[in-house]
Design a protein that fits this description.
This protein has 231 residues and is mostly helical. It folds into two domains: 2-31 and 150-225, Orthogonal Bundle (Endonuclease Iii, domain 2), CATH 1.10.1670.10; 44-143, Endonuclease III, domain 1, CATH 1.10.340. It is 59% helix and 0% strand. 35% of the residues are buried. Mean pLDDT is 94; it is low at 1-5. The structure holds iron/sulfur cluster. The site of iron/sulfur cluster (SF4) has 13 residues, from helix 10 and helix 13. Iron/sulfur cluster binds next to helix 10 and helix 13.
Length: 231
């Protein structure tokens, strides 16, 4: 059975891969009906700041750090006016605080000076701004502006490989591979589903395959047990 399934995965056509992705999403939508971005925010600017803080940090920690900051700094100009050492101290517990503070400063200064304090809603413009790469730009367009976005974070990358949708390791290549497999209208839902499943079942070190609702669609699960966790 295991080797049969393995052969199936190896010879899978694009059409079959798309059908499998649709099945995965259907199951995960049912499993996690409340799947969403787990960073707390109430304005586009707050989500941009929270997203910068979330690099190499848990959403939980970011959500602990941001409430007093969001209360104190309400506009892009407010953020840009905070002395850098003060901001560094305030966000220290999120890690990589010097770089993050520098990015928040640079981003909010540009927003205040060139964009009337507002976050642009366009993906290409967003990626030109300090501290905002493709992942964050996709998160912003998907979460704040209701446009489709594939948010390729660590969970997305891990699950894409385990499920057997792409063996790429580069996030941009993975994003473009998944654009071919998941319909655009489902990009945002797919992204949230990957993160939720990665955080609740398909853990990095020890995925809980025995209770996983999408195991029938997973290449990792079909691999003989002795090979599991080696790659
Ligand atoms: S079967 Fe295991 S590896 Fe595959 S998605 Fe589920 S938890 Fe992850």
């Amino acid at each position: 059975m295991g080797s049969d399934r393995k052969r199936d995965f190896a010879n899978e056509t694009l059409a079959a891969r798309r059908r499998r992705a649709a099945s995965v999403l259907e199951i995960l939508r049912r499993t996690y009906p409340d799947a969403r971005c787990e960073l707390n925010w109430s304005t586009p600017l707050e989500l941009a700041v929270a997203a910068i803080l979330s690099a190499q940090c848990t959403d939980k920690r970011v959500n602990e750090v941001t409430p007093p900051l969001f209360k104190k700094y309400r506009t892009a100009a407010d953020w840009a006016a905070v002395p850098l050492p003060v901001l560094e101290t305030e966000i220290r517990s999120t890690g990589f605080f010097r770089n993050k503070a520098k990015n928040i400063h640079a981003l909010t200064a540009i927003l205040a000076e060139e964009y009337g304090g507002r976050l642009p809603d366009d993906f290409d413009t967003l990626t030109q701004l300090p501290g905002i790469g493709r992942k964050t730009a996709n998160l912003l367009v998907a979460t704040v502006f209701g446009k489709p976005g594939l948010v390729v974070d660590t969970h997305f990358i891990r699950l894409t490989g385990r499920l057997g949708f792409s063996d790429e390791t580069d996030p941009v290549k993975i994003e473009f591979a998944m654009r071919e497999i998941v319909p655009e209208k489902d990009w945002t839902a797919w992204s949230h589903a990957m993160v939720f499943h990665g955080r609740r079942c398909c853990f990095a070190r020890k995925p809980e395959c025995a209770r996983c609702p999408i195991s029938a669609h997973c290449r990792f699960y079909a691999t003989p047990p002795k090979k599991k966790l080696q790659s």
